Amino acid sequence: MTQILQKRPSSISIRAGSIAKQLIEKEGFYANQVDIIPGAAGGPKGIGLTGIDQAIFGEFLPQAKQRRFLIGSSVGAWRFAGIVAQGEKIGPEKLAELYINLPFQKGMKIAEIEKISREMLSGIITDQTHKLVDHPDYHLTIIAAKAQHLFQSDQKLALYGSLLGIIGGNAISRDHLNKFMQRVICQPADFPQFKIQEDAFKTHYVNFNQDNVADWLMASGSIPGVTPAVKNIADAPQGAYRDGGLIDYHIDLPFQSKGIVLYPHFTDSITPGWFDKMFKSRKANPENQARTLLISPSQDYLKSLPLGRLPDRKDFVLKGLDEKQRIQLWKQSVAESQRMGDEFLELVEKQSFAQVIQTL
Fold it and tell me: Which neighbouring-strand residues pair with 358?
């Protein structure tokens, strides 16, 4: 009797903007087409992409060496910093290991969380900060938010009052966030600079160096009420800097790519700002994402994970989940992510993207 083998459901979802879809259907998808890679904010969800990051940076992009922009906010910037500092294979593994073993506990003070976070960041970049400044292949671009008025303060009354104002203003229009914060795009000085068209937010362009890049990475991931704003950054304008995801959560920016924007992401849609999560109508601008190829975990893959989803910051304090269990479940999620990397590389080898692409 012939046994019929059932094919395992796909682990990845492939979506593309209008121009990217046309290019891939006409020319296929190759490493030399990729000039920009975004990385979203999203906390430990980022380590759920370990396998796909290793496949993209360790095996796919080296097929066509060229200088590329890596544009990240919060954990997206930390992912890329690890890759640039430690290498395409070790960087993602190191980030996952350090995140998995963070000793976060309910009730910790923000000073304690800041100390632990800085130690984690130090473990990611070690003594390789020079690579973040002058890497021959990757132009690391860090997005942060410069707080305005009362939002600069970490005092509870001022901070939470500002957050209430932000939430209320954002409910009316995303543009109202500009009363509370401004965008900061921070990058090395010695290469062509990443710039965007003017929008509702005042954008500051700042160059980082070996002495201050760690502070900029901390600022990019400084969640209000969880860690304090980063102040007194060397060689930078005075101010209080916070999580880049507050404005640019999934980085819906006009990238001005000349090829394809390859976006390894933890979800199959793009939400502009962190405060837009509660509004299903707040989606990416199709013009911004016209050249984007979005690679994300499929719904079948997510359901197959131990938690039925990617790791999440709430797991540190989730009722019924102790630290030992969390660590084990997160390790399993990271290990499973190799499936996504393998499937991506198989699609590259067979050049079968056109058969599976959906519209972004």
Answer: 15
Rounded-to-integer distance, Cα 187 and Cα 173, Å: 29
CB 275 within 8 A of CB 166: yes
Helix, coil or strand: residue 65: coil
* Position 22 in a domain: yes
Q: Which two tokens stand for residue 19?
A: 């121009």
**Against a cut of 0.85, is the pTM above it?**
yes
d(CA 98, CA 57): 20
Number of structural domains (the chain) is 1
Contacts of 301 (CB under 8 A, 6+ apart): 9, 10, 11, 12, 336, 339, 340
Beta-sheet pairing, 181-187 with 203-207:
parallel
Rounded CA-CA distance 63/204 in Å is: 34
- β-strands 240-243, 138-147: how paired? antiparallel
The answer to whether residue 39 is domain-embedded is: yes
In a domain, 2, yes or no: no
- Residue 256 inside a domain? The answer is yes
CA–CA separation, 79 and 309 (whole Å):
19
Judge contact between 212 and 131, C-beta under 8 A.
no
Quote the CA–CA distance of 322 and 75 in Å, as a whole number. Answer: 24
Please give the Cα distance from 337 to 79 (Å, whole number): 15
Domain that holds residue 221: 12-359
pLDDT tens digits, 76-109: 999 999 999 999 999 999 999 999 999 888 889 9
